[in-house]
Every structure is written in C-alpha cells, then in structure tokens.
Amino acid sequence: xxxxxxxxxxxxxxxxxxxxxxxxxxxxxxxxxxxxxxxxxxxxxxxxxxxxxxxxxxxxxxxxxxxxxxxxxxxxxxxxxxxxxxxxxxxxxxxxxxxxxxxxxxxxxxxxxxxxxxxxxxxxxxxxxxxxxxxxxxxxxxxxxxxxxxxxxxxxxxxxxxxxxxxxxxxxxxxxxxxxxxxxxxxxxxxxxxxxxxxxxxxxxxxxxxxxxx
Length: 214
What we know:
The protein is α/β, with parallel strands linked by helices. The chain has a single domain, classed as SGNH hydrolase (Rossmann fold, 3-Layer(aba) Sandwich), CATH 3.40.50. The protein has seven helices and seven strands. It has a five-stranded parallel beta sheet with strand order 4-1-5-6-7, with helices on both faces. The chain has a two-stranded antiparallel sheet with strand order 2-3. α4 links the parallel β5 and β6. The radius of gyration is 16 Å and the shape is globular. The mean pLDDT is about 95.
C-alpha cells in the first residue's frame, strides 16, 4: 500500500466559486479524484486548508495558515508516507502576505526541506518522495474584493510554474503544472469549478504512479 499526503490550500480543500466558496462534493475534489484514479494499492490523504501559504503568517484567520509550520505535524500524524504532494503558492501572492512569485518559491523550498529532513521515527520508512504542483494561473476578475486582495497576482502567478519546475529539479522532486489542465473562473479569479478541480486529480494519477515506481 502506497500512502500519499495531498497538502494544499483551498484548491485542495475544494472551494467552489459558483457557490460563494462552499465546498465541492467529495467526488470532484482533486485528492479524492486522484484516489479514485489510482485505485487499489494507494491511499490519498487530503490535507487542504483555505488560505494556507507556503511559509508565511496570515494573522486575520482563526487557524494557523502557515504551511511550513503545520507541515511537520501533518507528516508525523500520517506517517508513514510514500509521497507528499505540495500544492501551495497562490495565497503567497497576496501583497499582504508576500507578493512576488519568488517569495512563494522560497516558501515552497522550505516545505520541501521539511519533508526531506523530517524525523518521522517510523521503523523502516525512508524519505518520502515529494511532488511539487504549481497552481493554476490566477485570472482577472471583476470582483473588487478579490481584485484588490490579489493585486498584481495575475502576472506573478504566471511565473510560478517556471520557478517551481527549477526548484523541483534542483531538489530531486517530481513536478506538475496544474495550469496545463485547469483554470479558475473569473468569478473570483482564483478558485475552480468542479470539472477543473477534478481534472487536476485525473492528470496527477500517472505522474504519481511514475514517481512512486522509481
């Protein structure tokens, strides 16, 4: 049995922009779709949190959205893990959080380092493999709140795939650009409808199989 942790933000949690951010049905969330596509012999654990960043604080929430700070707890909770999928970065692009795509890349580097150096303390477990997922590119939105909250992020989000691909290669991780199969709705410019979020799960299945086969 191969165990996979899907560690991400609202795109992993399944925020539905067509219903004011309510959660997509489980059948459409990409971790659950990935589980269905992989089938027997795999367990996918969904660990998505709305607003989660790579490694930056967000003080307006009633939960800890700093991905790097919570990651060791998630790794320890769900050990042993064969693969950790890191699907983060969109929230880093908020000017109030970090802003530049380069900052998201540095935060993701920290998350990768945490996984690769984690003291899991499970007999016989080696280092978990890491799959870096670059989020879909943000699009322009007429929504004044989201447009202001993500000011400048349309251009910055277009840089993430390049940064993440280079980082993944440097640190020996797998890589997938979710922007090749999914795009957000302009309702808020960030979140995905049911079909787009499910498309990520379907596309990740062969990538995960290949990563765990080597």
